[in-house]
Amino acid sequence: MGLLLLTACTTTKTLDEWRAMDNVNTRFGHLMVVALFRQDETRRMFENEFAWQISNMGPMVTRSYNVMLNLNENTTAQMPNIAQAVGADGILLIRMVKRKQYQKPATSNARPAPASLTEYLQQSWKDNYDPPNMTSNTVMAVESSLFDTKKGNMVWSLATESMNQFGSKWEINLLAKLVLGKMEDAMQK
């Protein structure tokens, strides 16, 4: 029930989708998931979630961090050869293209104080807490692209935007559901 509620409240939306028309009904039996993030922990969180959801859909999955420990501008040139070496016929590349952080005063989080000093002092002991001074939301634009390793070309791409309101783990889960659902639909049309 909680997951259903979170899914209904998600702020992840599709910005743009593209697919190569000559790759209709393309099927991938083994995907390598690559999250292009500088922070290893973030990379692993994205790759683990996407890989788990892909494996539930049927294809075999390789997380890039298992075969490419250091991912940077110098090592990415090796990616197509490594993907073919592990038997992956497709690479799903995930990268953040933009991040914005919005902050606003959290005045709406504080409850109104009673009008008189006596009432205020009595109430203060009953419900004593420190509300946050600021609330913040991070909006991230993520691009997910699927490449055919045999042909070496992109077959599908999706641009999304998510507001991080539930925490990174939930947002990655919801993002993966959206991306993989759209990817599956695009490969069947």
CATH superfamily placement: ABC-type transport auxiliary lipoprotein component
Q: What would the principal axes of the Cα set say about the shape?
A: globular
Largest sheet: 6 strands, mixed
Radius of gyration: 22 Å
Unreliable parts: 1-8, 106-111, 127-135
Number of domains: 1
In percent, how helical is the residue content? 25-40%
Question: How far is the N terminus from the C terminus?
Answer: 32 Å
The class by helix and strand makeup works out as: alpha/beta
Average pLDDT, rounded to a whole number, is 78
Number of strands: 6
Main sheet strand line-up: 1-6-5-4-2-3
Number of helices: 6
Give me the CATH architecture, please: 3-Layer(aba) Sandwich
> β content, as a range?
25-35%
Q: Please identify the top-level CATH class.
A: Alpha Beta
List the helices and strands and how they pair.
Layout: H1 2-9, E1 13-19, E2 30-36, H2 40-57, E3 60-63, H3 64-67, H4 79-85, E4 90-105, H5 117-126, E5 134-148, E6 153-164, H6 168-188
Helix pairs in contact: 2-6
